[in-house]
């Protein structure tokens, strides 16, 4: 049986044909990779003594925090931590 270059449904005929693009480097599916990466990130944070805090803010405050963080060339998380540390130092 001759193979046609346009026929991509018969995968076994094209098993060894090299395709352009980046080779697959992780055997896990992307969804599982994200879970593993998140779990590892949480372990690193815990080892560094970091705790997770979540809260909701208005879109205006969110944008203001983003703008201020960009102006100071730091992450939004670092900015919020700095603001909280300064505020707690004043009150205590």
TrEMBL record:
Q: Which domain of life is it from?
A: Bacteria
Pfam families tied to this protein: RHH_1
Q: Where is this region: Disordered?
A: 1-28
Where are the compositionally biased (Basic and acidic residues) regions?
1-20
Q: Which residues form the Ribbon-helix-helix protein CopG domain?
A: 51-89
NCBIfam families, A to Z: PRK11675.1
Protein name listed in UniProt: LexA regulated protein
Q: Name its species.
A: Pseudoalteromonas qingdaonensis
